[in-house]
Specification:
The protein has 150 residues and is an alpha+beta fold. The chain has a single domain, classed as 3-Layer(aba) Sandwich (Aminopeptidase), CATH 3.40.630.30. The chain has three helices and eight strands, in the order E-H-E-E-E-H-E-H-E-E-E. Strands 1, 2, 3, 4, 5, 6, 7 and 8 form an eight-stranded mixed β-sheet that branches.
């Protein structure tokens, strides 16, 4: 499946793109994963947002976080693929493009993520390694992972 990719700083998002991001993140994190949490955490405004569209519908997105905001390292967060677009490789392309965009925007440096434990092998396929003990976040087991440049 061919997606059209765009990456924008928060202030560059159109109202329709912002709504699509909120909609997809709510669909995945709140409804599908049954997590009641504050998605609007005041970090979006200092981040870039990678979006993959199929026609006019947002199929996948991530939040690209500069160093010093979530972690000392740059970070990829709010990784979401619409259930409608899973099973076609969209998640793999999303992560590969997210890594590439991080390096383009912030320079090639370590990337740290907070990963749901069940996705450990998925993230390992991109070179991430576990760097923390297991912890609970919103009722879901998580681990921190890092993709080192050296």
């Amino acid at each position: 499946m061919l997606l059209q990719w765009t990456c924008k700083y928060f202030d560059e998002l159109t109202p329709h793109e912002l709504y699509a991001l909120i909609h997809l993140r709510n669909e995945v994190f709140v409804v599908e994963q049954h997590c009641v949490f504050q998605d609007a955490d005041n970090l979006d405004q200092v981040c870039y947002h990678l979006m993959g569209f199929h026609r006019a519908e947002l199929a996948a997105c991530t939040r690209l976080v500069p160093a010093g905001i979530a972690y000392d390292e740059i970070s990829i967060g709010r990784v979401a693929t619409s259930p409608k677009y899973r099973g076609h490789g969209a998640g793999k392309v999303l992560m590969q493009k997210s890594i590439e965009e991080c390096y383009r925007l912030f320079g090639e440096q370590d990337i740290k993520i907070g990963a749901q434990l069940y996705l450990k092998k998925f993230y390992e396929s991109f070179g991430f390694v576990q760097c923390s003990k297991l912890y609970d976040e919103d009722g879901i087991d998580h681990i921190k992972m890092i993709k080192a440049t050296k």
